[in-house]
């Protein structure tokens, strides 16, 4: 084992010819390594940050593959720092629910490289969704998420941030149907007296919603 430094090398052949060269022997470069943090669970409209800790000589180049919803793509992440984080957003890939798999393939630094065989799974939770179909009488209103819904605003959507049990948003689709209150359309002119009670005969009309 040679120490680091410059060495004179003489190469000779069978007939006595020779050539001199100076050879520089440097220190051995270490293969870069990486410590990959845990992958968090996220909502469908959020991003996951995976902590990365590198050893070696910057800059670092990390090759990785994303697999989500039958979709696969290879990407690269670069860092000049020993500590960094990889951000992956669910909306960038076709996976509203389920998982996003991150396969880490290769790491290189300023001098060497290493093949990786690690992966992380990001669980994606869907927002809670509810359909609100309600029949009201003319003049009535409801208040949802501090918003007033009435005859002039009978349809809409409200998003309650972090309102679902899993911590994601709660989405309410609102459909209001209004009906006209009943009205008298034919009041009989004759009255019937029975046991000191006056009975009026009339017809009611109710319009369909």
In a nutshell, what does this entry contain?
The protein is mainly β. It has strands spanning 5-12, 18-25, 33-36, 42-43, 47-55, 60-68, 71-79, 83-89, 98-108, 113-125, 128-137, 142-144, 147-149, 155-160, 170-179, 183-194, 197-205. The chain is 0% helix and 64% strand.
**What would you report as the Rg, rounded to the nearest angstrom?**
38 Å
Helix content: under 10%
Average the pLDDT over all residues and give the rounded result: 84
Helix-strand makeup class = mainly beta
Unreliable segments of 5+ consecutive residues:
none
Q: Tell me the span between the first and last alpha carbons.
A: 93 Å
What sequence of helices (H) and strands (E) makes up the elements? EEEEEEEEEEEEEEEEE
Strand content: over 45%
Explain this structure.
This protein is mostly beta strands. It contains no helices and 17 strands. A 5-stranded mixed beta sheet has the order 4-10-9-6-7, with no helix packed on it. It starts with a strand and ends with a strand.
């Amino acid at each position: 084992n040679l120490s680091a430094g410059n060495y004179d090398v003489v190469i000779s052949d069978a007939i006595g010819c020779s050539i001199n060269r100076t050879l520089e022997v440097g220190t051995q470069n270490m293969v870069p390594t990486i410590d990959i943090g845990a992958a968090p669970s996220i909502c469908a409209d959020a991003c996951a940050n995976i902590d990365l800790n590198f050893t070696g000589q910057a800059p670092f180049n990390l090759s990785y593959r994303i697999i989500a919803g039958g979709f696969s793509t290879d990407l690269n992440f670069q860092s000049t720092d020993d500590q960094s984080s990889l951000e992956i957003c669910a909306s960038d890939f076709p996976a509203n629910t389920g998982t996003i798999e991150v396969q880490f393939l290769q790491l290189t630094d300023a001098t060497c490289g290493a093949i990786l065989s690690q992966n992380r799974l990001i669980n994606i939770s869907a927002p809670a969704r509810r359909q609100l179909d309600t029949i009201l009488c003319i003049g009535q209103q409801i208040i949802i998420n501090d918003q007033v819904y009435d005859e002039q605003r009978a349809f809409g959507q409200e998003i309650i941030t972090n309102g679902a049990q899993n911590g994601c948003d709660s989405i309410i689709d609102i459909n209001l149907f209004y009906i006209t209150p009943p009205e008298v359309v034919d009041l009989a002119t004759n009255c019937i007296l029975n046991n000191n009670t006056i009975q009026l005969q009339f017809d009611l009309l109710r319009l369909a919603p």
